[in-house]
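User: Hi! I'm working on a homework problem where we have to compare a predicted structure to a textbook description. Could you give me the structure for the chain below?
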Amino acid sequence: MRRLLTAALAVFGLAAFLTTPTQAATTAAVFPAEIIGENFPDPDVFEQNGTWYAYATNGARGTLPVATAPSANGPWTVRGDAMPGGPSSAWAQPGRTWAPDVYPNLDGTYTLTYTAWHKASGRQCIGVATATNPLGPFQPVGTTPLICPLNLGGAIDANTFVDTDGTRYLVWKNDGNAIGQASTLWLTRTADNGRTLVGGNTALLTSSSVIEAPDIVRRGSQYVLFFSGGGYTDCNYLTSYATSATLGGPWTTAYRPLLTTATFDNHICGPGGADIVGGKVFVHGWVGNGRHLYVADIGYANDYPVVRGSRVRYEAERGTLNHCVVRSNAAGASDGKVVAYIDYADSWVQNTVYAPVAGGYTLHVAYANGSAATASHGLVVNGNNAGSVSYPVTGWDNWRQSSVSITLNAGWNTIRLTKGTLYTEVDYLEVQ
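Assistant: Happy to help. Predicted structure tokens:
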């Protein structure tokens, strides 16, 4: 009778239980740190000899704003303009110099690949500049753009990728959005410290909506292609990714975006322009009228990215169950299935979750409690008693969240929910 559904019970959709936790908790989630508190969009970052360098789209600091820090988390100091002479006067005009990529070459020089305003067409195209110092001054190379497919809307957002065999590429986007056409992320091999192209272009992903700011990372079993989506002008901007066993594809896009305003519980507005450097991910997010720079820890669960502070969902029914059952066709539940009848002394459901680094996290449990009073489950983390999770009354199939603080090890961890007081069904766990 405790699971008897009545017409009077309201059914909450996905958006409701994503944003409406019902148990107050001391949040242990560590959200990305704001490291440059001024406009510093479309970041490109690298570390060399103990110093971190970051570059951004043009703004009040000049054509190529540059900042330095002793560590990824700062403190960061904006140094000024690393390309004070502006883009190539032979083909580009000042303004709209976007999305820089600076790569330190083996010979001690630095190659800048930048997007600039093409004088002849008014579109955006990709050019190259070089310097002998990471702070500049960078000098444009050549009298024509490096990449400029005007029939496809031009080109933006180039990023250098060097594979494990030393082969160097640029991944970039044709700006189809500028002319009402689909946009594609392309891969092009380069030589001569990234200043010349070798061979043709390989299409990676195509979308009729916004897809941009690509960045490729090689993992043991696959390549991970990070990209931004949505309109960059507001909080709908996001970061997602696709994976492939080979650079040539096929590429499989993630089921859910990696970083959104919602997955960070509104701590960043429109997290996009992601640049991955080792165990760190740098993104920009809106603050007032500018996009500030943030950094977070990133790790890889079986070579799939996980970012600390961004919610990752684990369906309870896909875990290991003992003396409980999976209930299908659960109205309003994520993926339509939940774990039910966690009712006995030996009942439990256990999920394996991943943490990029050791430390405090927040566990969100999506649940429905049709008992007459607040219910609970025992909480066991990595085999150790970690207290309990309590669930205020919701009614059956009215899915809400209850949140508690937990401590996780770096890498894989186990979270087990055991029989507590009264009765509750579990939809999913989210670790943040």
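For your comparison, note the following. The chain is about 0% helix and 50% strand. The first helix runs from residue 14 to 19. Good luck with the assignment!
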